[in-house]
Amino acid sequence: MMLAVPTAVRRVAAIHDLSGFGGGSLAAAIPILSTMGFQVCALPTALLSTHTGGFTGFHFRDLTDDMAAILRHWQQLGLRFAAVYSGFLGSPGQIRLVHEAIATVGQDALIVVDPVLGDNGSLYSTMDGTMVAGMRQLIAHAHLITPNATEAALLLGEDPAQVMDQPLREATIKDWARRLAAFGPWWVVLTGLPSTEPDRTQTVAFDRRTNKFWRVACAFVPASYPGTGDIFASVLTGALLQGDSLPISLDRAVHFVALAIRATFGYGAPEREGVLLERVLPSLAAPVSLSSYQLL
Ligand code: PXL
Q1: Which of 55, 154, 185, 244 lies in disulfide reach of 248, CB 3.0 to 4.6 Å?
Q2: Which residues, listed in sequence order, are joined to residue 212 by a DSSP beta bridge?
Q3: Domain ranges of the chain
Q4: CB within 8 Å of 51: residues ≥ 6 apart
């Protein structure tokens, strides 16, 4: 009898900041993707005392020069990754470095770009129009992008404030997803969309190659925790790497974030401290257990 040769643990190059307090970014990507069976190789973009959502006076060190040196060494080593997954970027120069990482260590990799730019209708404090323009170019090289409604509007040159007025109509959601896919990505996943159904929130995925839309809705919790976008994108990336379909991956990511929010909400801790990831992380190791996706 032939024994199957065990395959090595696959590696993900994770290009995010490291925020010491408040969760999110690498503090989400590393434990989530490790739990899902992948080795995370961090290419840190910035070092912060806290994330920028809800904190002022935070320490911020831009690591653009270090990123270039780290990437050069990885190239010399001939490293290749199963995925290149970028999130919060600290400067336009870093966007160029992500392009370079994709073209070198990311050959044959799944390319995931979470275009972190803003939320709740406005830009994050460290972002500006140059970063929006750079991100627009970067998403053209991704297979998967995961903007929230604010980021989708910014990337499309729409007024981001409109996402706060009323839930986007289904026709608008589909139009935005199609227009974002026209930049290049196979899959556009629009996160955290208010629903027209009361007390529900929805996430919609568009698969450009099959021209299909998928929706997963879940109960809305009246709280907004920074870092949940990073958690969502990390689970989605892990599920796709595990071989799950787009709708099942979407389903797992939505329900994991919902679980993390519910596990946190009852404690009444300040929202800026993020979710209690460690309380729910073990559930990620379980196989697919539910599915509530709909074809839209
Ligand atoms: O969750 C996105 C994110 C990532 N990194 C930093 C942030 C934010 C959102 O506020 O501040 C540093």
Answers
A1: 244
A2: 207
A3: 11-281+288-295
A4: 17, 19, 22, 23, 24, 25, 58, 226, 227, 274
* Separation in Å, CA 187 to CA 29, 36, 37, 115, 197: 20, 21, 23, 13, 25
225 CB within 6 A, ligand 1 = no
Ligand 1 within 6 A of 244 CB?
no
Q: What is the mean pLDDT of residues 131-136?
A: 98
Cα gap 149→163, rounded to integer Å: 6
In the sheet that 83-86 helps form, which strands lie side by side, from edge to edge? 39-42, 11-15, 83-86, 110-113, 144-145, 187-194, 200-207, 212-219, 294-295
Q: Does domain 11-281+288-295 match CATH 3.40.50.11210?
A: no
| Residue identifier of the C-alpha nearest atom 10 of ligand 1 | 53
Q: Is the CB of 51 under 6 A from ligand 1?
A: yes
Pick 293 or 102 by higher pLDDT.
102
Q: In what order do the strands lie in the sheet with 46-50?
A: 18-21, 46-50, 60-62
Residue 210: HSE in the Cβ half-sphere, 13 Å Cα cutoff: 12
Which of 50, 58, 116 maximizes ligand 1 atoms within 8 Å of its Cβ, making it the mutation to test the pocket?
A: 116
User: Each residue of 201-237: pLDDT tens digit?
Assistant: 999 999 999 999 999 999 888 889 999 999 999 999 9
**Span 98-107, average pLDDT:** 98
Predicted confidence (pLDDT) at residue 199 exceeds the cutoff of 80: yes
Q: pTM surpassing 0.90?
A: yes
Report the range of poorest mean pLDDT among 37-41, 49-53, 145-149, 196-200: 196-200
| Residue bearing the CA closest to ligand 1, atom 12 | 51
In the predicted structure, residue 289 carries a pLDDT above the cut 80: no
Task: Please count the other Cβ atoms lying within 10 Å of the Cβ belonging to residue 59.
Answer: 10
